[in-house]
Structure prediction request, 392 residues.
Amino acid sequence: MIEGQESLETGKKLKYGMIGGGQGAFIGDVHRKSIALDGKAEIAAGCFSQNHKNTLVTGKRLGLDENRLYRSYEEMLEAESKRKDKIDFVVIVTPNKFHFDIAKAALENDFHVVCDKPVTTKLEDAHELARICRDKDLFFCVTYTYTGYPMIRHIRDVIAQGILGEIRFINGEYPQDWLATTLEETGQKQAAWRTDPNLAGISNCVGDIGSHIENMVSYLTGLKIKSLCARLDNIIPSRPLDDNASVMLEYDNGAKGLYWSSQIAVGNDNPFKVRIFGSKAGVEWCQEAPNHCRISYIDKPTELISRGRDQMSASAQKLSRIPSGHPEGYFEAFANIYSVFITALAMKIAGEPLDEEDLDFPGIEEGIQGVKFIEKCVESSNKGTTWIDFLA
Prediction:
């Protein structure tokens, strides 16, 4: 197949403001470029750093009006809420510690929110954000990026059709090696805040990448975790937070699972992988080869599905952008999350009806589930790697 995705550009662009993501940050620029990919929204305001000079430099490079470059997020939210041309939503790309206060303030000023994961560092705070969203009828998107890959949508639909049969065992792994040395001691910004409990919260490895496994498995299978048993390791002893984690799980249908996340696995860049085994077939997908998945059957040959070449499910095909052989990657997956969110938000603003497919982006409930997973893993590990009731 050589058809790509139809143009996603719309006539009227929404406007957004960003909090965090100034010079020296990584993920803020990823958000901005991903949003810009489809031309559905444009940045109009920002408080990119606690250092106002950084905000001014960042804003200037983005071509923003200096009057909409703010000294604090409080100033930005208050000022923008009073403008006739105010922003439509707020994007939060700060260290974890600040997510709750900023998101709560944005919601209380009637702004829809997009926030990096984990959505908060405490479960009760995530529930509070959900309550405000319900009370004010506001959208909240949590950027679990990897569910934005077209192939992931296809695998989800394959599982929903019962092609794998009854799910029996799930294996998820997310190994990296970027913290195999004490990088945080060199002043490297990303390493410094992620290994600092005052900024990252109660977990580093599980909070940063292990939570992606939880979200991915939940999205693909719809299974609920019944109980888990976790061991969180500080492989580098000077670190106050985990840099390696192993988690055994039981699901509500009786299936078993094993998750491994690591930031000290030398030789691994970012090979986030999921394997799901059922009574009829098994499926495997890896983030470093995101345009393909392998489905193996008991009674017929294994299939290698290729995005762009092979016919995928309708929901997956909608997100496939370019012809076969041209790799779609991280930016496109990120852009797909935003594309669905922004389209739904534009429809909501216009008073148009929304169905389940329109709302197929990770929301506050997925954010709550992620924070709960982190807390239960830490609890299990602190209690001597014991089984913990996840439903309690």
